[in-house]
Amino acid sequence: MGLNREPTVALNNTGRAAKPEYPPCALVIFGGAGALSHRKLLPALYNLALDGDLPEKVAIVCFSMEEMNDESYRAFAHDAIQKNSRRPIHEQEWNGFARTLRFVRGRFNEPADYRTLRTQLETVDREAGTEGNRVYYFAIPPSFIETCANALHDANMIRPPDGPGTFSRVVVEKPIGRDLASSAAINDRIAAHFDEGQIFRIDHYLGKETVENLMVLRFANSIFEPLWTSRFIDHVQITVAEEEGVGARAPYYESAGALRDMVQSHILQVLSIIGMEPPRSTAADSVRDTKLDVLQSIRPFGDEDIEKYAIRGQYGAGLVGGVPASAYLEEGGVAAGSQVETFVALRCWIDNWRWAGVPFYLRTGKRLSKRASEIAIYFKSVPRILYNSNPRAHLAPNILTIRIQPNEGLAVHIISKVPGPQARLQQVAVDFHYATSTPEAYETLLRDIILGDQTLFMRRDSVEASWQLVDPILDAWKETPGEIPVYSAGSWGPLEAALMMAADGRSWRVL
Length: 511
Hints:
Elements: E1 10-11, E2 17-18, E3 25-30, H1 35-50, E4 58-64, H2 70-84, H3 91-98, E5 101-105, H4 111-128, E6 134-138, H5 145-154, E7 168-173, H6 180-191, E8 199-202, H7 209-212, H8 214-219, E9 233-241, H9 250-275, H10 284-297, H11 303-309, E10 310-316, E11 318-320, E12 323-325, E13 343-349, E14 359-365, E15 372-379, E16 399-405, E17 409-417, E18 425-433, H12 441-451, H13 460-479, E19 486-488, H14 495-503
Parallel strand pairs: 3-4, 3-6, 4-5, 6-7, 7-8, 9-14, 10-19
Antiparallel strand pairs: 1-2, 9-15, 10-13, 11-12, 13-14, 15-16, 16-17, 17-18
Helix pairs in contact: 1-2, 1-12, 6-13, 9-10, 9-13, 10-13
């Protein structure tokens, strides 16, 4: 089950989705010998190759500073796939994939090395038939983005967006800035050399099968869309919970925190899909226009809202799965007395006709009780008559839960009678889950990049609208740091988050 995007999916004469025509392409990974490539990109590309979802004429070129050649880079890729692929490596398929891999040693700030890269890509065009098509994947720190974009331009390696026949695209990983001003600056630097239609701002959450299926769930099923309004929905909860701590990412987390790392990107993007109106079509800009409308309709946070409905916390020592876990302040790379938040809970309002009066509760955190990402749509209770007339035994509400990870799927929680002579009622779940392994998010996103489909990628205006929402919260926390609430590792976050819900007469769903 996936999102049918107009530009890329055709039907064959059986009515089934046919394989799209993949254009010849050279994928150049800046930082291709780094951690992201090892954990995600190379395994994803290998799985695409297994599925026949790479172009027949393709080359994967690593541009990085390590002491490697083609042979040692292929060994690096083999190790990456062995350790991180969702499917085991098969030597016959591996041999074919390995032939697509090339390595160019180069420094990101050295013009001569870009001339070497250009010469190698011209050789690839002749040998692999990639026809001058380029995807530049910046798997690099944000501080290098301007350097690499300028160098590609100066080496005449970027084709104009309206040029005949060939294409140049650039892929940028989050975080895109740390606030609105820095995000706009990064976007300006990319836009100096790439048109918006050439820029793919990647958020791996949008490539998850369950997230991709949200539009299908809403707009391909008549039982849901008529109920998807304030008339029937009481509130919405979006949870992204992680068991693990910051680990080796502590230096990054010290400069980011949970609000920047998870809310500004992943969670607000999911909220925009849940809250969007039906788009005119499934074309990329039609979908992204409609998502932007939601982000621009979220009520800005005032000072009083931040105090009451923007809750932060930091994990202390505790037990996670019965195993002792250290406090955040005890993690390597964390500054003494750090006030960085590892937990955030927000209450948001979408001020439009569909969602007027429906609160959206968002929460995310490290070192919580379990790893789980879920959207829960709480429907309004039935009237206080008939089966709901007992004031001491309220019926549980109907809930639609959409599990993003793990155990991807969805469930409808309804009230049913317990078998027997008495009218005893209970909540039961009608549950659906994916029976087979779903593609990893990076597989979906890399495939779409090669096809030129931007549906699942963030547009500049969407990124900056998200920063406009969270900047006042970040500023308020910076100006009045106070004493950050501490929650025990293995819990569901600080008490203040539960009290925020209780003040509204609600509670967080137990996952």
